[in-house]
Write a structure and sequence with these properties.
alpha+beta, Lipoprotein
């Protein structure tokens, strides 16, 4: 009798697992999922970032490249957690600071976070707020990386970002706070954006 009850229990467990797998498989793929899957399957490899920086370069080469730009007055040391400062020519023409500093995995650059802030920002001035800055940054990065950014959001639509995926290179743009917009460029050959999100949550 006990053996029969055990078998019935096991059958129920297996049925529940099967139903769960079928349900998961029936979930519609988002535009992000479709584009990411397509780009990764394409085999296309994109390593270019900006200002002669690229995925895969080591720390020594990164610092040497920044130093060369520093000597020409293109890059400076910024008063920001992202230590390198650049003054991009934005489509709006507004004075803007861009700060960046990469992360390395086994001495290879794989993640480049950047933050943009208007030089003239002050509380209450909508012309220099994050809504205008977001539009400006997207247009600016389209000049660097081309068109093709699309919007993604969480289920409750409370968090939104603009995303572009070219092969292994993922670019994500979102409002960080009232005055700044953050950009993250990730090499999907090294880590997935879900891993980076989990890392941020644990920090």
């Amino acid at each position: 009798m006990k053996e029969k009850e055990f078998m019935i229990h096991m059958i129920r467990v297996l049925l529940l697992i099967a139903v769960g797998l079928i349900w998961a498989g029936c979930q519609p793929k988002t535009e992000y999922d479709i584009i990411k899957e397509r780009e990764l399957k394409s085999g296309k490899v994109v390593e270019d970032l900006f200002l002669d920086l690229r995925f895969g370069m080591g720390r020594k080469e990164f610092f040497a490249t920044c130093w060369e730009h520093n000597k020409k007055g293109i890059l400076t040391n910024g008063a920001h957690v992202l230590q390198v400062q650049y003054k991009p020519a934005m489509p709006s023409g507004k004075d803007t600071n861009m700060f960046f500093y990469p992360s390395f995995e086994e001495n290879k650059l794989y993640f480049m976070p950047m933050e943009f802030v208007y030089g003239g920002w002050f509380p209450g001035n909508e012309e220099f707020g994050n809504e205008k800055l977001m539009e400006d940054v997207v247009a600016f990065l389209e000049g660097w990386f081309g068109e093709g950014f699309f919007e993604v959001s969480n289920k409750s639509k409370t968090v939104k970002a603009m995303v572009k995926i070219d092969g292994n290179r993922l670019i994500r743009i979102f409002k960080k706070d009232l005055k700044s917009v953050r950009v993250e460029i990730l090499d999907l050959r090294v880590k997935d954006i879900a891993e980076m999100n989990k890392k941020d949550e644990e920090a």
